[in-house]
Description:
By secondary structure, the chain is an all-alpha fold. It has helices at residues 3-7, 16-25, 40-61, 74-87, 92-99, 104-110, 116-130. The radius of gyration is 19 Å and the shape is flat. Residues 1-10 and 19-26 have low confidence and may be disordered.
Amino acid sequence: MWPATLRVRTTLVLSPRMVSVKARSAFFVFVNRFGQPQHQATLNKAIRRIIRNCNDKQFLESENPEVLLPHFSCHSLRHTFTTRMCEAGVNVKVIQDALGHKDVSTTLNIYTDVTKELRKSEFEGLELQFNQ
């Protein structure tokens, strides 16, 4: 179990679609066959295996191979989740609470990235405001 998991106590409001996941996993996205939280090292090992298999196939089948799947860890998924919530317009205080951060600056400065798509859509919205 991750140390942060022990510190974070938060209440999540789940959509009906997510309720079945909650019931099975007690809010953990990755659980083992016993329903317990999967250990971070085990997840990272599985991710490395998936990356290796994906890229090996590409390198075997192509004369000019490209890396299809770059290296990442399970912690990268936390950053991606946070960025996607920001892109969806979720209130930053809700995101802060979901991640268990004491300070919203941690959420904004470390866990959110501005994607090209978000930057473009935000400036398009700003342009619309100026043209009114």
